Amino acid sequence: MKSWNALKHENPELAMIGRRLLFQSQPHVGFAFLATLRNDGAPRLHPVSIVLYNDHLYVMIPTTSPKCADLLRDGRFSMQAFPPPDNESYEEFYLSGCAVAIEDISVRQRLISDTQIKAGENEALFELQLDRVMYTRLINQGTPDEQPMHYKWHAEGTFEDHGKIPNG
Q: How many Å separate Cα 109 from the centre of its chain?
């Protein structure tokens, strides 16, 4: 597992696209769908706010929330960026990995102070460590050659693409 910072250094173009899609209205606070695993192994899907702070990706989740219990029990997650309002290119940004609970109160306090986010005392802080990232975009729209193109990064150091990532 690696941090957002590692993705940014290993594949800056993919990280830039991900940042654009995850943080559509504010530079450091965004929205996405978070999938976790329930106690019985079934998936659970939630919209969440995400925070990019010092090149690390975080979520703050109320400790009474089922998704918090899911992440504390089994940190595996998947996340999908909200689609852009004008999604003519049919762009998608997906990431998965393991959420790590941050127990250091000073990290939480600096994150809240520096980003000016509102957070309750009963919210647990998790850093989202990445295993894989995928950007998908529909190409050759409206032609017989229309197809999705996938650009993938893996924490073990591989990057799969099908040529240069098209400008969004």
A: 22
